[in-house]
Amino acid sequence: MTGEGRPDRAVVAAHGIRLGIAASRWNAHVVDAMVERAIEAARSCGVTTPTVVRVAGALELPVVALELAHHHDAVVGLAAVIRGATPHFEYVAQAATMGLTQVAIQTGTPVGDGILTCDSMAQALDRCGLPDSAEDKGWEATVAALDCALVLRDLRSRAAAGMPG
Q1: What's the catalysed reaction?
Q2: Which CATH number fits domain 19-160: 3.40.50.1260, 3.90.550.10, 3.40.50.960, 1.10.443.10?
């Protein structure tokens, strides 16, 4: 993992943005850290009270993200899918990721993809934002969703004012 090309871990001024976070209960040690980092990222961006809900697993994220998207300006889905000995990993990772993308496209609400798809628990721990992790995917997915919500807010306000986007 290089993180090459990743933007700086910046914050955006997202005061007034309503954020929903849906997180899996599978691989709780990893996902709990991602939730904590997502909440911290939201607060650093001015979103003081994000809605946080927990779901059974990664496959439940899209339907809950869809519901959150109806009442929030941005949504983040968080999970850790760890490869096992069967192809189940492939199906879960693809379905959950595609589901979050479909929610964003169908609703026009940005959905940050914080689904870790890792070959091992060690890889997941290295990406979940713990103090000794190399990456912080909960933070990154949250800032990305908030940033996109701000872009959409600006584009929509321009359109409402009759200005070109």
Answers
A1: (2S)-2-hydroxy-3-oxobutyl phosphate + 5-amino-6-(D-ribitylamino)uracil = 6,7-dimethyl-8-(1-D-ribityl)lumazine + phosphate + 2 H2O + H(+)
A2: 3.40.50.960
Binding site listing for (2S)-2-hydroxy-3-oxobutyl phosphate:
85-86, 127
Dump pLDDT digits (tens) for 74-103.
Answer: 999 999 999 988 888 899 999 999 999 999
Binding site listing for 5-amino-6-(D-ribitylamino)uracil: 26, 58-60, 80-82, 113
Half-sphere exposure of 6 (CA within 13 A, CB side): 16
Is there a catalytic annotation at residue 71? no
Distance CA 25, CA 45 (A): 25
CB 78 within 8 A of CB 138: yes
Helices (H), ranges, 9-120:
28-44, 61-69, 88-107
Tell me the per-residue pLDDT of 4-40, one tens digit each, with 9 for 90 and over: 656 666 889 999 999 999 999 999 999 999 999 999 9
Catalytic member of 29, 70, 71, 88 = 88
Q: Tokens 């339907």 label which residue?
A: 63
